[in-house]
Write a structure and sequence with these properties.
2 copies of one chain form a homodimer. Chain A is α/β, with parallel strands linked by helices and 231 residues long. Chain A has 2 domains: 138 residues, HAD superfamily/HAD-like (Rossmann fold), CATH 3.40.50.1000; 78 residues, Putative phosphatase, domain 2 (DNA polymerase, domain 1). Chain A is built from 9 helices and 8 strands. A 6-stranded parallel beta sheet of chain A has the order 5-4-1-6-7-8, sandwiched between helices. A two-stranded antiparallel sheet of chain A has the order 2-3. In chain A, helix 1 packs antiparallel against helix 4, helix 2 crosses helix 3 and helix 3 crosses helix 4. At the A-B interface, helix 2, helix 3 and helix 8 of A face helix 2, helix 3 and helix 8 of B.
């Protein structure tokens, strides 16, 4: 890192949230939950990024609904569902309001706030979904900003997305550190000039095609301990 | 369609190729084959698109290797593998040289060629992999061009990728029809001015966020029958 950051910008889906409620709801519907769940987020990101190439607005909720409809409506899946396709998609999407945060998140967020960092949540999905997640976890009050790319236009990791978030928060890029489980987000933030922390809960190798993170931590609690005091 | 196309540009991964050999090799290694296979291509596309935002070259082979290394190296998977991670990734990647074409492809390609269409294969992966696939299927000779985005820079569906392919083939956009199983590819080609055919083998709903295809066909053989004679 070029300097000690004074703000920590969190990615939300999978970085803060545990999405296993979606897997559970898919299984409950009769779908092959493990497979559909495994494909869900990469497919949503693929489609959001593709629409970003086109300069087209891509509301996360609508893209997510399209992905679930295609997955659940495919031959070999649709006939296994316990209800019609519309109702199945609705039930699966409802999982977003059940998502919880990972166990390392609440303590890590508290400690970062106590240490004086400005905390920001910045998501490719909707700000409202993120607000709900943070409220349920009892940490909403610790975040100065809850931001969505839906107000910026392009999805992360397009450079304009990070520029938008920095501008809303009144931060210069080196004053902020992005924390994410997703290497594509770490890479995009690094290219935009932010410091970066890769939250590596899975202990998996980091992709060679992406810029390495400044810090690698196993959870948000460890991040709170690893950062130097805010500038 | 604005006019009758004289060229058919085929997407390759999953549109021509059947990728179940990857699933088989993953199972053989001890990995949860269905899940890793389900995540594989959306994840590779996500990463190739993200690197396209950055203007960074993203060779498919390297991105694919990174994705497999992360999936197979994750906690809960690595310890189930029957060999070390490098060897496991190599075995999985080797599946590309085993991919076959879908049963509707050879007859459809023959018929399109007999009807006088100029045939082009245009892939986000390597031209060499695509050449191998078409050779094994005995239809390489029917294709006038086998093109990769690796010579263009950006991955499909970035508009520059289609412009590159059209330029190499000496085609104006309305003279070409893109055929793909992937809605993101249909959408990108439509925005670039090409005609489009969605090859829908799964019978799944088409995403609402993407431009609809001019034609929807259940396979390449049906496409050969559905097109008007080449202009």
């Amino acid at each position: 890192m070029n300097s000690a950051p004074r703000a920590v910008v969190f990615d939300v889906n999978e970085t803060l949230s545990d999405t296993t409620a979606l897997r559970r709801r898919l299984d409950e519907l009769g779908a092959p939950g493990a497979q559909v769940h495994a494909r869900f987020l990469p497919s949503v990101l693929r489609d959001g990024f593709a629409l970003t190439f086109a300069g087209e607005p891509a509301p996360f909720q609508r893209v997510a609904e399209d992905v679930l409809r295609a997955e659940l409506g495919a031959a070999g899946v649709r006939e296994r569902l316990d209800r019609d396709l519309d109702a199945a998609v609705e039930l699966a999407l409802g999982a977003f309001s059940e998502f919880t945060v990972h166990p390392d998140v609440p303590g890590g967020v508290e400690r970062l706030a106590e240490r004086g960092f400005l905390l920001v949540a910045f998501t490719n999905s909707s700000a409202a979904q993120c607000e709900g997640l943070l409220e349920r976890a009892g940490v909403r009050g610790r975040f100065a900003h809850v931001l969505s790319v839906q107000d910026a236009g392009p999805w992360k990791p397009h450079p304009d997305a990070y520029a938008h978030a920095l501008s809303v928060c009144g931060l210069a890029a080196p004053e902020a550190l992005l924390a994410a489980v997703h290497p594509w987000d770490v890479d995009g933030a690094a290219r935009a000039g932010l410091g970066t922390a890769w939250v590596d809960r899975a202990g998996a190798p980091y992709p060679s095609t992406y810029r390495a993170a400044d810090l690698v931590v196993p959870g948000v609690d460890a991040l709170a301990d690893a950062l130097p005091p805010p500038a």
